[in-house]
Design goal:
Blueprint: H1 5-31, E1 37-42, H2 51-61, E2 66-71, H3 77-82, E3 88-93, E4 103-111, E5 113-118, E6 138-142, H4 147-154, E7 165-170, H5 173-181, E8 187-190, H6 193-196, E9 202-206, E10 213-220, H7 226-236
Parallel strand pairs: 1-2, 1-3, 6-7
Antiparallel strand pairs: 3-10, 4-10, 5-8, 5-9
Length: about 250
């Protein structure tokens, strides 16, 4: 038995269709189904209450998904994305950036800004503060952050025109908190930070007249894959941040 000329032409065409189908199935497995990998970068306080929930959701949807967590220092958001060290970085905005840096960001949620003080600080027992309460404080700040971003975080200049005093101690948040706990100054951060660093020597106090920050996901400008969209959707699904207050203290 032999194929007719028409049958031979159909066989050639069908092989191309089957090969294309195999390629499509392989792509779907990598992007929409099981398997694949994602490297998630976290900057101090960026997503600590969301992290376990979001990653658990992704793992439930994709049991074979390989998830890697990467700690990103202040000023390291864009380099980590562009160098391929992280597929997505979750951080509080604004963050050190530059025009045409090759990254985009997606809003996850707003975040209240809080004052971090040592438990011995005169403001430690206050349920909340306003900017005029901290006019004379020295602010412990990170290195490696551009002046514009730093000014936004310490609220410089203040409504009354004063410029806050600053002391820089290093690029990592743990070092900043150690300096605050030692009484070297105070710090302003996103409320989420308390959930990861609820230390006995520190107090987190809402600043009622400070504009909120935003928690954002940062990724390469050209990235459009379904896994990234799933990550952002899962992060957004967990709603509003917890209500941080100075009354939440360890014994």
């Amino acid at each position: 038995m032999e194929l007719t000329r028409l049958g031979e032409e159909f066989l050639v065409a069908s092989r191309a269709v089957l090969d294309a189908d195999d390629d499509m199935q392989s792509w779907l497995t990598r992007t929409m189904g099981t398997g694949g990998s994602i490297r998630v970068g976290l900057v101090a306080g960026g997503m600590f209450d969301l992290g376990s929930q979001v990653l658990a959701t992704l793992r439930a949807e994709r049991p074979d998904l390989e998830i890697t967590l990467v700690t990103v220092p202040f000023g390291g958001v864009i380099p980590h994305i562009l160098n391929g060290q992280a597929d997505v970085v979750v951080t509080a905005a604004p963050f050190t950036s530059a025009p045409d840096a090759g990254v985009r960001s997606a809003h996850i949620r707003d975040s209240r800004r809080v004052l971090v003080v040592s438990r011995e600080h005169p403001l430690a027992k206050r349920p909340a503060v306003v900017l005029s309460d901290i006019a004379n404080e020295t602010f412990v700040v990170p290195t490696g952050v551009d002046a514009e971003t730093l000014a936004w975080w310490v609220i410089d200049p203040r409504p009354d025109g004063t410029v806050p005093k600053q002391v820089a101690v290093g690029p990592d948040f743990e070092g900043i908190l150690a300096a605050v706990g030692a009484g070297l100054g105070v710090n302003i951060t996103a409320a989420e930070a308390q959930l990861a660093y609820d230390r006995a020597d520190l107090r987190y106090i809402p600043i009622t007249d400070a504009r909120p920050s935003q928690i954002v996901a940062v990724f390469a400008a050209g990235r459009r894959d379904p896994l990234l969209r799933s990550f952002i959707a899962a992060a957004r699904a967990f709603g509003d941040p917890p209500q941080t207050s100075a009354s939440k203290r360890r014994a």
